[in-house]
């Protein structure tokens, strides 16, 4: 369901791997009985047109059912824990010109990437609280 890399791609305004995330949330939030019924259907891709045409925009994420929101929230927290430093520490380093300039060009670029990733994850936390 998640693809080869086992990750979902989030943008500022929507989920970029929305089909994978939608299917994963749907399955993980099913009861055992619902899952058995769903699995016995003639195909995993026989969802309604409404689901196929929906996008997981930030607005749509904030309207998810509570179990799906909790699952996303907990997943985001686990992802944030995997980073060495928190968002504030990254921001402080970006704002500290002297310390920032001591970093190599590669370290500066990595800092910008991490900071952007963490900002998106924090935005997602707010959407699903």
UniProtKB/TrEMBL annotation:
Keywords (A to Z) from UniProt: Methyltransferase, Nucleus, S-adenosyl-L-methionine, Transferase
A GO cellular component annotation in the UniProt record: nucleus
Predominant place of localization: nucleus
Alphabetized InterPro entries for the sequence: Rubisco_LSMT_subst-bd, Rubisco_LSMT_subst-bd_sf
SUPFAM superfamilies: RuBisCo LSMT C-terminal, substrate-binding domain
An example Gene Ontology biological process: methylation
Gene Ontology terms for molecular function: methyltransferase activity
Compartments where found: Nucleus
Biased segments, Acidic residues type: 43-53
Region feature Disordered, mapped onto this chain: 39-58
Rubisco LSMT substrate-binding domain segment(s): 4-121
Protein name (database record): N-lysine methyltransferase SETD6
């Amino acid at each position: 369901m998640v693809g080869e890399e086992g990750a979902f791609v989030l943008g500022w305004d929507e989920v970029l791997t929305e089909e994978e995330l939608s299917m994963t949330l749907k399955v993980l939030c099913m009861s055992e009985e619902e899952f058995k019924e769903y699995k016995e259907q003639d195909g995993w891709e026989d969802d309604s047109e409404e689901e196929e045409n929906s996008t997981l925009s930030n607005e749509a994420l904030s309207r998810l059912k509570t179990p799906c929101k909790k699952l996303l929230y907990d997943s985001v927290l686990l992802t944030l824990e995997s980073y060495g430093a928190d968002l504030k520490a990254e921001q402080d380093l970006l704002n500290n010109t002297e310390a920032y300039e001591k970093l190599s060009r590669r370290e500066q670029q990595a800092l910008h990437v991490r900071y952007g990733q963490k900002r998106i994850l924090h935005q997602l936390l707010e959407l699903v609280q």
